[in-house]
Amino acid sequence: MRYIVSYVSTISKSISDSDIEELMKYVKLQNNDKKITGILIYSEGNFFQVLEGQEEDIKTLFDKIKKDSRHYNIIKMLDKPVKGISFSEYHSSFTIVSGHNSHDELQNFLENEKTHNPEHFKSISYLIQKFIKPV
Ligand SMILES: Cc1cc2nc3c(=O)[nH]c(=O)nc-3n(C[C@H](O)[C@H](O)[C@H](O)COP(=O)(O)O)c2cc1C
């Protein structure tokens, strides 16, 4: 069964810009490798992440992420099975958004969600609009 988790969090004080860049690269590689889709956005000291994939993979990964000292104040917003199209029927790369130059990537992500995850599209796009300031 496909599963979705989304949360916001606050970055730890000790994390530098290059640490963030390194984390973003790592997350994209790992998630593409494990066929986990979604988005990780960094904006002004906060993370917003959507993780979609097989239930067991997502739960195991989120348990690790929760314990990661690079962020705190983790507030979970979505945590449920996805009823839509089966995960194996589409392939999408994990999206990373950092700074204000990623408008196209964000649009692509939202288009993909609208098609493949219509049940949660409204709440995800609403949360993203609230999370990042208009470009
Ligand atoms: C904000 C944030 C988001 C993260 N997202 C992911 C992710 O999507 N996928 C991933 O593999 N690791 C992610 N990580 C890293 C994990 O917390 C953890 O370091 C990584 O899974 C390696 O764990 P391991 O050494 O136990 O294998 C994230 C970390 C942070 C701080």
TrEMBL record:
Gene3D superfamilies, A to Z: 3.30.70.100
GO molecular function annotations of the record: blue light photoreceptor activity; FAD binding
InterPro entries with a match to the protein in the record: Acylphosphatase-like_dom_sf (IPR036046), BLUF_domain (IPR007024)
Pfam entry (one): BLUF
Coiled-coil zones: none
Domain BLUF residue range list: 2-93
The protein's name: BLUF domain-containing protein
Species this protein is from: Aquimarina algicola
